[in-house]
Amino acid sequence: MNYPPTRTEAVVDTLHGVPVPDPYRWLEDERSPEVQAWMRAQDAFTREHLARAPGRDALRRRFTELFYVESVSAPAVRGERYFYVRTHKDKEKAVLYWREGEKGEERVLLDPNTWSADGTVSLGLWSPSWDGRKLAFTRKPNAADEAILHVLDVDSGTWSEVDVIPGAKYASPSWTPDNASFYYEWLPTDPSIPVAERPGYTELRLHRLGTPPDADPVVHPRTGDPKTFLSGHVSRDGQYLFVYVTRGWSENDIWWKRVGEKDFRLLVKGEGAKYSLDVWRDTFYVLTDEGAPRQRVFRVEPERPGRADWRELVPEDSVASLQGLHIVGGHLALEYLQEATTRVRLLTLTGEPVRDVALPGVGAASNLYGLEDRDEAWFVFSSFVTPPQVYKTSVSTGRVETWARVDLPLEPERYTVEQAFCRSKDGTRVPVFLVHRRDLKRDGDRPVLLTGYGGFNISLLPSFRASIFPWLDAGGVYAVANLRGGGEYGTAWHEAGRLHRKQNVFDDFHAVAEFLVRERYTRPGRLAISGGSNGGLLVGAAMTQRPELYGAVVCQVPLLDMVRYHLFGSGKTWIPEYGTADNPSDFQVIHAYSPYHHVRSGTAYPSLLMMAADHDDRVDPLHARKFVAAVQGAGSPAPALLRIEANAGHGGSDQVAKAIESSVDLYAFLSSALGVTWAP
C-alpha cells in the first residue's frame, strides 16, 4: 500500500515507572496545518481505494431503496396537539409536524432541510410546552453535540428572537405547568475553558419566555467536577424540582425541593447504585438497582422522604432486567429485558400486575409513550427483519392497533433469526443473535459481520438495521454479541465489564468469534467485525489482541489511545467507566489493553477501515488518526484506511445521501476484504 507519508517522533512518557512511546503524538493537534494536510491525503487515498471496489452501483441502488423511506414516529401529545417526526422518500432529513387533534390537518413545524444550503445544520431535541403552544428545540451545526436552544410559537411558526440560548450541549428543557418557563442545563461556551473540563461547569437554569437568557437565574450551581453530569427536571404539576448529579453510568445522587423553597435537600446518595424517578399525584416512584442488580421500584412519600420510609412497590424480577419506568394512563409501564429481548408490563400505581403489553413478536420495543392522565399510549416495535412500526394501545383495555407503519422492499420470510450462546474464557455464558437467509449452508465459509458494544450499561437489542440486507442477500451472516459491560442482564453484567474488568468484554467477543468458526458459520479470513465509539475500542482491542482471528475490521468514531483519552473531548466523564492512567492501578489495566499501544511492527493485521467524523466533539478523532498511522507504520500487508466524514458529529451525518455513501463504502470495503459478491 502506497500510503501518504506519516512521520514519527521520539516521544516517550514515563508513567508510574513504565515507558510509554507515543510516536504519533503530533497527530493530536487537529488545528495544525500539517495534520490537516495529512487528513486530506489519507481521506483521498481511502476514497480512491474504495472507489475501485466491485459492486458499488448495486449497493447504492439497494441502499437507496432501503434508506429513503416514509415513516412516522410515535407522537408526543400536549393538550389536544400531536407532535411527531416524519421521514420522506424525497427528503434528506426528517421533518417535525403537528396536528390539532389526532385526525387534524398535518402541518409542518420544523423542516431542517431548509436550514442550510449544504444540509449541515441539524434538528436536535424538541420539547413542546404542556399546552402545545410553544416548542423549545435545539439546532446543531454539523450534527455535533454542541447546540443552540430556540423557542417558537406553534400557531404562527415564528421563532423568538429573544429566546436564543447558546451552550445547550446538554440542555433538555423541562416546562413549568404555566407554559411560560422551562428549566434547562446550561454550559458556558467560553473557549478559554478546556474542553475536557466543561462538563463540570454545567448549571441548571430557569428561563422565562421573552426575557434575555443572560439574566436566567441559576437554580443549581455547577459541580466543578468534570467527571459528573448535572441534570434536572420539574414535576408536571410544578410542585417539585429534582437535580441529578451523575458519576459515570453506575451511580448518581438525587436532590430535590418544593418549588419556592430556597435550598435543595438530598433524597438519596448513590454509592455504587443509580436512581431515577417519576412523580405523580404527590408520590415519587423511584427506579433503582440498589440491592437489586436487575432493578426494582420504590414508592416514596414527599412528607417522609427518608430512605427508611421508602416502600418497595415492584421487587426485582428473578430473570428479567428492568430497564425503564413510565407513568401512563394512571399505571406503571415497566420495560424489561429477558435474554436481550423486550417485555413491557403494566402494573397499578400500588404495584399490582395488570397485563403484559401485547407485542407483535419477539424483538425490541420501546416503553409506552403517553401522559399520566390519558388512556391512550404508543410504543414502537421492530426486529432484525421487521422495520419499526408504531402501535397505539389503550391502557385500560389492552387493545393494540397499528398507528403508523413502514413499508420497505423486503421479504422477511426469506430470513431467520436465532439466538445462540457460547462460553467466554472464564466460563460466562454469552449470547449472540444470528441473522441470515433461511437457505444458509453452514459450510465454514460464509462471510460473517460480527458487532458488539460492551460498555456504559448499554444494551444491544434485536432491532431493525436496514443496512444489513445486501449482506444477508449475498449469503452473509449478521451477528450481534451481547457482551459484559452492557445492560442486557442488569447491573452485575455491566459491572463485570468496566474498570479493572474491561478485559472480560474483549474475551467475550473473542469467544463469540471462536464459536462462529467452531460451529462452521465461517473461518477467520471471512469474519469481519465492526463497532463504533466504545464499540470502536472493542474492535480495536480485538484486532490487536487476536489479529489471526479476524479478516476485516470496521472501526467507527472510536477510543483507542486509552492512556490519554481522558485529556480530550468528553473523556473525563468516562473515567468512572474506564479508570484513568493517572491512577497507578488503573494504568496497569488500561495500558494492558489500549489498542494504540499494542500495534506491533511485522504483525499481519486484518484489513482495517477507520471511519471518523471531522466535527466529533464527543470522542476526539485523534484516536482514529493515531491508530491508523500506527497500523500503517507497522507494515501489515492488508490495507489500513482512514475515511473522514465531513460536516458530521459523533453520530455521523443525518443526511440520507451521506448515510448511503457511508454504507456503500463500508460494504464495498468488506467486499474487497472478504470476497463478497453483491446481488445485482
Question: Overview of this structure, please?
Answer:
- This protein is of the alpha+beta class.
- It has a domain at 12-64 and 410-674: 3-Layer(aba) Sandwich (Rossmann fold).
- 17% of the residues lie in helices and 34% in strands.
- The protein has ten helices and 40 strands.
- The strands form nine sheets. It has an eight-stranded mixed β-sheet with strand order 33-34-36-35-37-38-39-40, with helices on both faces. Strands 3, 4, 5, 6 and 7 form a five-stranded antiparallel β-sheet that branches.
- A hairpin with a 2-residue loop joins strand 30 (376-383) and strand 31 (386-394).
- Helix 2 runs antiparallel to helix 10 and helix 5 crosses helix 6.
- The radius of gyration is 25 Å and the shape is globular.
- The chain starts with 11 loop residues before the first strand and ends in a 6-residue tail after the last helix.
- 48% of the residues are buried.
- The model has no long low-confidence stretch (mean pLDDT 97).
What is shown here, in short?
This protein has 680 residues and is an alpha+beta fold.
Mean pLDDT: 97
C-alpha-based Rg, rounded: 25 Å
Q: Helix tally? A: 10
**CATH top level of the domain at 12-64 and 410-674?**
Alpha Beta
CATH H level, superfamily name of the domain at 12-64 and 410-674: Alpha/Beta hydrolase fold, catalytic domain
The largest sheet has its strands arranged as 33-34-36-35-37-38-39-40
Strand content: 25-35%
What is the CATH topology of the domain at 12-64 and 410-674?
A: Rossmann fold
Task: Give the number of DSSP strands.
Answer: 40
What share of the residues lie within helices? Answer: 10-25%
Unreliable stretches: none
* Coarse shape: globular
Question: What distance lies between the first and last C-alpha atoms, to the nearest angstrom?
Answer: 30 Å
Characterize the main sheet: 8 strands, mixed
The CATH architecture category of the domain at 12-64 and 410-674 equals 3-Layer(aba) Sandwich
Organism: Cystobacter fuscus (strain ATCC 25194 / DSM 2262 / NBRC 100088 / M29)
Pfam family, one: Peptidase_S9_N
Family: Belongs to the peptidase S9A family.
Protein name: prolyl oligopeptidase
